Amino acid sequence: MYATVKFEGVIDAILEHAVKKGLAKTKVEALRMGVLELERRYHLLEQEDELAVKKMQKIDAEIRSGKRKVMSEREAFGRK
Which of 1, 11, 69, 77 has the largest CB neighbor count within 10 A? Predict the structure, then answer.
């Protein structure tokens, strides 16, 4: 993903201090570190995976119970 963003005020100051203290070589690197910290702290990708698994399990249960119909490619697209 490519993005152009403008930070001002506190956010810009934090990024600048991260560079000055040698925590990151650039502000962009400091942003990347922040994103990785979000993942480390909140396990965002893991939660996404868990939600996907739960959704797939729900769909599978609906199929088994007859609440959801499964169609072949031929049935779905009317191909003969």
Answer: 11
